[in-house]
Amino acid sequence: MIKLVATDLDGTLLNCNRELSDTNKRTIKKLIDSNIIVCFATGRPLGGIKKFLEQCNLTEIESYSITNTGACVYQNKGYEILRAKYLNSEDYHLIESYTNGINIQVAGYSDYDLYSFEKVINPALNHDSKILSMPITETDIYEITNPIGRLNIMGDKENIDQAISCIPEAVLENYYTVRNETFSFELLNKKSGKGKAIKFLMKYLGLQRDEVLVLGDNFNDIDMLKEAGISVAMGQAHEDVKKVCTMITDTNDDDGFTKAIDEIIYNKLQE
């Protein structure tokens, strides 16, 4: 019996306009009414998902969020932090030292801030700021007010490729890295990642793999999908994502989230 549903947001629960459909909203309520725990597991910082948590009334009940690509795990009621794996100024200076002189920006993402440590803000960071509805804070790395969950190398694809090639493999191995978008390469604490975060949450809740359902669509979802007893890839997901899943549903624009939940959970309950 499924007791926890963990879902990615962009490309999974949200449609291509980055909106939560009424259909998916009703399905979240249906899960809540069935006493199934809901977890949003996203690359977004907490500040970029609060409106969706509130739309689904998840801040009033037992529910959870995995944010910043697994850097943090929250209980949504009161936004109590349960697990956090951060980076620090040394990490920033190390990455910046290898990429200095390349037309990219190394930006910092906390759960409440998008930090720019440079005078010129890369268009890719402005793009994220708009999507997340989070302002950019221009500051010095030593003057940040909230800890950094991830560093993003941001810019054009060719420049990011060049930047990555300049960082020694031995250095990259000390971080959890993922590239969901051509314009952004993420570096996180080695103990971060959605897979480690969902594994922590399962242990915290005392759940077994066969009691957990996970849905996702992109590269940063793969580790998390592997941890679940039932894993669902969206119809438009990358082939590498589909390969690790037990089921493929419809696309995010056609409410694939709801269709998967109805087939896996509620059809079985009616049998």
TrEMBL record:
InterPro entries: Cof (IPR000150), HAD-like_sf (IPR036412), HAD-SF_hydro_IIB (IPR006379), HAD_sf (IPR023214)
GO molecular function, one term: phosphatase activity
Gene3D superfamilies xref list: 3.30.1240.10, HAD superfamily/HAD-like
One Gene Ontology cellular component annotation held by this UniProt entry: cytosol
Protein name (record): Cof subfamily of IIB subfamily of haloacid dehalogenase superfamily/HAD-superfamily hydrolase, subfamily IIB
